[in-house]
Amino acid sequence: MMRSMSRPKLSALGISILLCAAGPTGALAQTAPSQAQMTPAQIVAQNRIEDAKFAAFVKDFRDTALKAGISPEIYDRSMTGISRNPRVAQLNLNQPEFARPVWEYLDSAVSPDRVTNGQKMVATYAQPLAHIESRFSVPKEILVAIWGMESNYGEAMGNFNMFEALATLAYDGPRADFGRKELIAALKMEEQEHLDPTKMTSSWAGAFGHTQFIPSAFLAHAVDGDGDGKRDLWHSAPDALASTASLLADAGWHLGDAWGYEIALPKDFPYEEADVDNVKTVAQWRKLGVTKISGAELPHGEATAGIYLPAGAHGPAFLVFDNFKTVLKYNNAASYALAVCYLADRIAGGAPIVASWPRDEIPLSRDERVAFQADLKKLGFDPGDVDGVLGHKGRAALRAYQKSHGLPPDGFATENLLEHMERDIVAKGS
Ligand code: CA
User: Fold this and answer.
1) What separation in Å is there between the alpha carbon of 240 and the centre of ligand 1?
2) How far is the CA of 372 from the centre of ligand 1 (A)?
3) pLDDT per residue over 299-333, tens digit each?
4) CA 11 to ligand 1 center in whole angstroms
5) Are 243 and 225 in contact (CB under 8 A)?
6) Are 317 and 377 found together in one domain?
7) Where are the alpha helices (DSSP H) in 125-211?
8) Which structural domain, as residue segments, surrounds residue 393?
9) CB distance 255 to 139 below 8 Å
10) Backbone angles phi, psi at 317, to 5 degrees
11) Last residue of a domain, one of 347, 377, 397
C-alpha cells in the first residue's frame, strides 16, 4: 500500500479499517486517545508497562507458534530482540477525524501520473503480463492497477520490520487476533521460503511487497511469476503480479466479464434499490429506467449486478458486476474496488467518469457522525451502535428516514441531512 505510514488500511484479504466510502487516509488523524491527555511522565510510565506486556507476549506466544508447527529456531531468530513499535501502536488506534470524500480519494488514487505510469508498466512488463493473463485469466490492467494502488508500482512497499509490526498488533489492541494469525503466517512464510527475518519489511499492518500481500494471503495464493523457482513479492514484480492474479482467480474473477460501468439513473429512480449487494439482472435494471451514461440502453442480459453510488444520489452511479466484488476480496472497501477498476480502465485507454461529484459537500466529522446516529435513534430509527461508524445498519436507518421524508433514499450522510434531522427533532420536541 502506498503512504504506508499513514494509511489506515490492511491489504490483500486483510481487514479493512475504513470508516467510510471514501476510505484510505482520513485527512486528520488523531493521536491515540489514551495518550492524548497524558503528561510526558505518564506517557513514559505507560510505555514501560506496554513494553513489559509486549515482552511477556513474545515469550508466551512461543508455545502457540510451536504448536502451530513453527520450529523453535525460526521463532527465536525472528522474535528475539524485537520491540514494541510505538508508531505501529499509534496507527493501530488511529481513528480518522474526517472521512476523506471519495472524489478526493479518487483524484489521488487515479491521478494522471498514476495512469501514465501504469501504461508504462503495461509496456515494460508486456511479456510477463501476457503470460500471467493467459495463466490466470485476469486482465493485465487490473493487476497493474492494484500494483499502482498498493505500492505506487513498487515505490512504497513499507519499511517496518514485519515481525515487530505484527507482534505490536498482536500483543494487545483492536487487531490482536489479526496480528496473531498473521504473525504465525509470517513465521511459516519465513521458514518455507528460507527468508532472512531482518529483511522482511512491511507496512505497519504487515502487508508487504509490490502488491502488499499479508502473510496468510501469501501462503494461500502466492506463485512464482518469473520462473526462478522462488516466490519473491519484494524483489520480483512478475512474482507479485502473478500472485495477485492467482488471488483474484481464486476469488472468482471471470475473464471477459466487465467489472462494471458508469450509468445514468432516471429522476424517479427508487434509490433504496441502489446497493452493491442488491443484485438484479441487467434486464431488471433496464426496466427501472437505468441507462448507460451515454443514454444508450442497457443490454437485455441476464448477468446480475448491483448499483454503487460512491457519493449518494448527487454523484456518479455505477452498475457493478461480480468481478467488482472479486476486488473487494483484496480490500473490502467499495471505494478501493472502484479506484482499482477505474484505474484499470484508464490504463487501458478508457474515458474519465462523466457525471460530476458533489465537491461542495463537506464530509462529516467523527463527532457529527456520532450525532447523526444519535439523531436517527431519537427519531425512532435503529442505526445500530452509536459509534461514529456508519455501517450497513446505519445506512438502512438513514434510507428509512430519507424515504419517510420524501428524500432520495440513498443512505448517504451529509451535513444537510444532519441539519434536516436536527430541525425535525426540535419540531418534535416543541
Ligand atoms: Ca520468482
Assistant:
1) 9
2) 50
3) 887 899 999 999 999 999 999 999 999 999 989 99
4) 21
5) yes
6) no
7) 126-136, 140-151, 162-171, 176-193
8) 366-429
9) yes
10) -125, 145
11) 347
